[in-house]
Amino acid sequence: xxxxxxxxxxxxxxxxxxxxxxxxxxxxxxxxxxxxxxxxxxxxxxxxxxxxxxxxxxxxxxxxxxxxxxxxxxxxxxxxxxxxxxxxxxxxxxxxxxxxxxxxxxxxxxxxxxxxxxxxxxxxxxxxxxxxxxxxxxxxxxxxxxxxxxxxxxxxxxxxxxxxxxxxxxxxxxxxxxxxxxxxxxxx
Length: 188
Fold this sequence. Notes:
This protein has 188 residues and is of the alpha/beta class. Helix content is 21%, strand content 30%. The longest helix has 10 residues, at 105-114. The termini are close together. Residues 1-8 have low confidence and may be disordered.
């Protein structure tokens, strides 16, 4: 059986921090817990290297709005696509920085592939969960902080099927933060 050549060069990857109990935001949607471990040398824990390997970012509306609320200079140097069923436009301040994209995941991926964006960074809890439900994540980079939040926004949700991943590597940062990379195991 021959595989589709486009499917062979596509790669949807996640790079995200989570608490020990699997949350990506606290009960109020806050991210202050990400600063729980002192990082005096501002180690990016592989983020810049990860970003060099991607073509574009697909993030959910909640993640986009969270990034916009930081009050910092736009942090991305790759094209950003905001996946939303409810937004009709993005604020004028983000013209040329982000673009709204809508539709089914298959349609969204087809549109991005037509633009030659094949290696995608998938970001945001609900967006990651949607991609996982449709088995469209090829790699997970999970950075676990030694914090129990006890509630909040979960990274993972129920799935219709079991998805198998293979452990690629684990690194420890700042003697406390554990980052593991997993690659989706698929039958040929």
